[in-house]
Amino acid sequence: MFYRKDGREQQxxxxxxxxxxxxxxxxxxxxxxxxxxxxVECDQTKCRNWMDFEGDLNCAMVCARKYPAGLSLREVxxxxxxxxxxxxxxxxxxxxxxxxxxxxKELEDE
Length: 110
Description:
With 110 residues, this protein is mainly α.
């Protein structure tokens, strides 16, 4: 069964004044946007973006938005509480998988 709103209900929705949060973030703000605005650390340890690094409000998304040019491998290692060689191994493995899948190609010497 198809549900249709009546005309008055649709017009009320169109004429509704958005809240300040909706103006700032849109109708459904993401949690990391709220954390950034209020500078509040994330406490959702089950979240896939959670990391134990208070400098970035415990959120990988906040970190990514804070450093658009990226981080060095040492900075990533510090944030993830993992050694630098392990981060380097993960990076090499990721690049190998991307090469094998044809996403990136080896640079050839000319």
